[in-house]
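Researcher: We are triaging several targets before committing to wet-lab work. For this one, the compound of interest is zinc ion. I'm pasting the protein sequence and the ligand SMILES. What I need is the predicted three-dimensional arrangement of the protein with the ligand bound, expressed as structure tokens, so it can go straight into our comparison scripts without reformatting.
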Amino acid sequence: MDFASSKAYISKRKIQKAAPKAEGELSEIQEKCDSDNSLSDAELDQFDGKESKPMEDVEEMKHDKKASCEEKPRGGGLFGAIKSVFSGSKPEAKPEAKPNAIPLVPLAKLPGHQAKRHRQEVDTNIIGFKLSVLKDKTEIATGDAIVCDKCKAMFNIYSILTKEQVWVCEFCNHPNKVVIEEEEMPKSDSLTYVLESAQQSMMKKGGGEDITVMFCIDVSGSMCVTQPVQGAMNLKYNKVKKMQDLMKFSDGSYQYMSGESASLAYISRMQCVQTAIESQLKELAFGAPKRKVGIVTFSNEVTLLGDGRLPPKTFAGDKLNDYEGLIETAQKDAEIYMTKSIEETKDDLIKRLEQIEESGQTALGPGLTVALGIALKGNPGSRVILCTDGLANVGLGSVENLKNAKEVETIKSFYTKLGELAKERGVSVSIISIVSSDCNLEMLSPLADLTEGDIIKVNPINLSNDFATILSENIIATNVELRVKLHKGLTFRNEDQAHVSQDGSLLIRPIGNATDEQELTIEYKIKDSKELDKMTDVDFTKLDRIPFQTQISYINLEGMKCVRLVTKNQSITFEKEEAKKEADYKVISVNAVQQTAKLARKGKLRDAQANAMHWKNMMKGSEEYANYVGNSEPLYNAMQHQQQVMYMAQPVPSGFGGVGGVGGVGGVGGVGGVGRVGGVPVQYHDDVVYNMNQATRMNQRKMAKK
Ligand SMILES: [Zn+2]
């Protein structure tokens, strides 16, 4: 547990028991917020406080137009349509802006906008949890954990046992009759209970070294889109014939853009992927030789290359719509196609990789199902890495031409089902989307979000780095559940109430996979005075310390089911500023970024922006300020654009002549929720989805790196 301040802040206002009741609305708001700062909508329109600035869209690949393949034009759906409306009609569009960049429009000025002030409680009452602690060796507790009958706190090093064997719970004051032997008394504030040994646990024994890594690769036609690369590049995967075809397709006479030299080579997405995977295979064979590494590709059909030693197996036709069939067959195939580790299979696998040809459509859903089925047979901590540049449009999980909300939901639930299955079995799924294409990441995102996988948007040239980044983050425990126990006078702030119980003092947050870099935060606060008044046995003025406890249950990589119990006794202060003096701004900024992402996921984009801005103001002057702003800005701006799109999806009010031509976009919009256009929900743009995933996974190390 990393406290954002060494002192828990207890608001004086709330503990004045005899506070006069009828002070009117203002005092009520103040009690709820305990802060005088509120933000206007206009203040939320610019995160960096500067003039509006174009979105940092990744530069459209210049050469896209010359592509010879059957890639269908994708205008980026609604978002793309709105983009052009905006850049064409709003004065904010600066002439020097890239063609694809759109200006940030102040929402406060848009018609139909309802002004609102945004209040929020911001203080140092934050706790961070680094899940890497699960790797640490601690004292192993003997016997079973002793749990308070009333509030579910666990007996710990700070608990006091009377001679009569009564434990008065330090969290809720409930007297528990307990039987504890002297040797069972906790001797450390951090200990591990082993609930089930590896044999009893359902999980297979793993070890981290011998996991399965499945590359699930899009080889559809669009993968042959090329882009120029400067200098002598290792063009092993460069196919001469293909290059000639490409030249024919362009104007036929001139291969190079003006100002570019003949040392420029054109390289396709497929070549980039092949090159990147080959280098990963070599690195894995050297650095993690016991891992089983396999490849699944998908276009019109799904091809299982496995570990490369057997001729590939193809899944096609009706099979691509049969979820049960695919997942079962894949698990059986794992026994046949994935038998050897990378130190033995590297050369075979590279040969198979060289033979890959791109063509056809995108059976992404079926491909993913097969890759996941194989990974499920691997040891806990196994990985699937999906690499795609397009929309799923063949077989299961096809996202093309969805007509209504129900169809959208059906497809979303398919990917969520895959994600849940992966999470339960300790497999993580990461998604690499190749830039300058629309992958409908919102549909795919549950896979990564549920399994602690990454979502990465990448220029194909940089793929190798991203594979390496994804593979360097290891799953260290599975089936993780975080429980946080607070003193009965405290409760959680900004938590899903479905996860909170025991009169607001217990939080149960399901996590699933834990990685060695993962960090979680929670916020807490003192309960409202109304509730405190009812507690005759709590007087904060007579306390100088209060206990905090975490109980993390998990299955470790040896297959043992464990609970890590950590208890801390924290001193308190009644002065907000005093708590701030002791502040650890790293924990504060991680929390702020993660809270923003959490609100964005709920569709509360404006609240998410307000959250980001409140914390920004709070952190002003601290050493973390610049890091925080840099880390928050991409998501902040992506949300601003998403809201612009949603505004545009609403019927255009009369008198708003600036934006014409939104014809064809009918239906009712909704800002702050998810709007609908023509009966189909407006989906989050890939930038929002990608940035939400990155923000959720933000930790102190990543904060510092930027
Ligand atoms: Zn208790």
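Researcher: Any quick observations?
Model: The first strand starts at residue 2 and ends at 3.
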